[in-house]
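Internal ticket - ligand job 296, guanosine-5',3'-tetraphosphate:
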Amino acid sequence: MSNSEKQREQQEVSVQWFPGHMAKTRRKIREILPLIDAVAEVVDARIPYSSRNPEINQLIGNKPHIILLNKSDMADKEVTDRWIRHYKSQGIAAIAIDCKSGRGINLFKDTVKTALAERLKAYAEKGMTGKPLRVMVVGIPNVGKSSFINRIAGRSRAKVENRPGVTRGNQWFTIDRQLELLDTPGVLWPKFEDPAVGERLAFTGAVKDRILDTELLAMRLLEYLSKNYAQLLVSRYGELDFESDSYGLLCQIGKKRGMVIKGGETDTERAANMLLEEYRSCKIGLISLESVDDNA
Ligand code: G4P
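stdout (structure tokens):
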């Protein structure tokens, strides 16, 4: 494929999306809201904007809200810290966590208690000191919601319980005498209709490559990386001519790795797969794909 053909197609990168059961999820969440004290929303720290459900703020209304920036082990710490400050400035509690190592998980309980200080005081005034706080954990698929619940609750504590007035089969987890978690009743989808969101979900691997053109995806990633993390690209692949466009960059990187086909041309498909794999496994470095300035 020629360079100009690539560029033309680049305009057309978009992700198919399937609305799933948002209506059902919406109804279930509304039904359960009166029973919970707060919502803990798990997002991917590398893409805190794209890994959110676009309706969540509206759905949970003024329930206390805690954002858990998960996979922080893969993100740029400075950028994650700025997101945390940003959420806090909006009155939303936020912490960085990493469910692979467990880092940050121990902050969760105290963060919930601080976010719910007023509620705890009201319970105490009514003599309801033994009442556990109930927190609903939400998140789009693949952000690490199950990893978080398993980390904090441990598999052995998982239980399925039916409470009066609540749809059967909701998953409640008892963390300790003071805290119970509820898994999202249903599936929350990202804002797939926005092509930029679909693209970033594909960069991280949350959306499978096969519905997108791998080379175009790799070129788009290179466009972003050359603007924001050029030094990391150089450290990984050696000196690069950043004057060339993203297709040219992909060719340079492929050549450096010996990915050449007959006639001396770069095997751009192999190069693209390699680049995406190396981004996703953090071999290029700890990289955030969304900054507060561009996405909040
Ligand atoms: P979900 O319930 O929100 O759908 O997500 P889930 O916990 O299944 O996690 C999705 C993937 O993300 C899993 O990888 C999981 O291991 C990984 N993951 C979750 N939290 C973290 C984190 O904090 N850091 C890192 N680096 N990875 C995290 P997978 O490839 O699907 O499975 P596997 O690697 O566990 O076999």
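Auto-summary: The pocket of guanosine-5',3'-tetraphosphate is lined by residues 70-71, 73-74, 98-100, 139, 141-147 (CB under 6 Å). Confidence is low (pLDDT under 50) at residues 6-17, 162-168.
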